[in-house]
Specification:
- The chain is α/β, with parallel strands linked by helices.
- Helix content is 41%, strand content 16%.
- It has a seven-stranded mixed β-sheet with strand order 3-2-1-4-6-5-7, with helices on both faces.
- It is globular, with a radius of gyration of 20 Å.
- The relative contact order is 0.15.
């Protein structure tokens, strides 16, 4: 009897430790592609992990089949690809910024979103989880070449047709935020192609506010994120090194 009790105690402690670190649902990796075949974003990234769940969201039947064959857990949308790159880019934004809206992505301690053009691997991401500590719930790459200015981001974006059509909306957002006391320059300017999150109410609130700005302005979500990072400055930090390129 005593031996049985010791075994049960050890088993219980082991299960407790699994629960504390997230168990089998420790990290979820996910990416997406919405649109017609042949576009610049029509790229299937390598499967980032065989250890953790990896989801691919798409409304493209060809991509669905490719992702299935590559070992992804595919979430297929019946909403058909749109006619313009701008519309297709907007279709990708909800899953990018609000993973908590999707049942498949709930219940994980951490999530790692990455653009379909990037390459990400679980062993690298595991090493970065320590950055999600204290008040920090979101880690992203520093921008490759834009230093600090949202105006520079806007200028760059206007060279891309799918963003240029919404120039007036981006300008209104920028002007309104500067008038409200936020800055046009920040210590860090972020890219949003790779997002490592610690799940919880704070990161959900970040996503909701960010998605609100995106719906008001358009698919160039780094402009709106520039103000999100100021509104949630204690909760967002850069990754230790540029990653995923």
């Amino acid at each position: 009897m005593a031996g049985t009790r010791r075994v049960k105690k050890r088993y219980s402690r082991r299960n407790y430790k699994r629960k504390q670190r997230g168990g089998d649902k420790h990290i979820v990796f996910y990416s997406c592609f919405y649109g017609k075949s042949g576009s610049a974003a029509d790229i299937l990234p390598p499967l980032p992990s065989k250890k953790y769940d990896c989801y691919f969201f798409t409304n493209n039947t060809n991509m669905r089949d490719r992702a299935n064959d590559a070992g992804w857990k595919v979430v297929f949308s019946d909403n058909k690809p749109k006619e313009t790159n701008r519309e297709n880019a907007m279709d990708s934004k909800e899953v990018k910024v609000c993973p908590h809206h999707f049942e498949e992505l709930k219940g994980y301690t951490y999530s790692c979103y990455f653009d379909s053009k990037l390459k990400v691997y679980d062993t690298d991401i595991e090493k970065m989880l320590d950055g999600l500590k204290g008040n920090v719930v979101m880690l992203l790459n520093k921008h490759a070449f834009i230093e600090k200015s949202v105006r520079d981001e806007l200028i760059m974006a206007m060279g891309i047709e799918k963003y240029a059509v919404n120039h007036a909306k981006y300008t209104r957002l920028i002007d309104s935020k500067l008038k409200a006391g936020l800055k046009d320059k920040a210590e860090v300017h972020y890219e949003t192609g790779l997002i490592l999150r610690l799940s919880g109410d704070i990161v959900n609130n970040i996503g909701e506010q960010w998605y609100k700005y995106i719906k008001e302005t358009g698919a160039e979500c780094q402009i709106s994120f520039f103000f999100i990072q100021q509104e949630f400055k204690d909760n967002i930090a850069p990754l230790p090194n540029r990653y995923g390129q």
